[in-house]
Amino acid sequence: MTPSTVQHIVFDVCDPQLVAAFWSQALERPVEDDWGDFVRLSPDTAGTRIVFAGVPEPRVGKNRLHIDLNTENRERTVAELAGATQARPYLLLLVIFVIYRSVCFIV
User: Which domains does the chain have, with CATH numbers?
Assistant: First the structure.
């Protein structure tokens, strides 16, 4: 098999500009392209870009994909992210994880 790399991770959303603005702030990756129905963030060090694609139908059920953030100061990071609220903390393998809800994905 020929080796492959991930070029884009694409999320279908109802409002690509709103969601891209949230994740641009969270990941400190500026919006690279905005084509209306498609908004692309600048690449990470591996060259992978996150794209938010506008779709007309609302989401049904839970998200099947999510982004896990790693930060030195969880409370400060969440306070800085507009619209993020803590949903619930939980312990898994002696590591504390906190689930946050973003208004951007409640569509």
Answer: 8-56+69-105 (3.30.720.120)
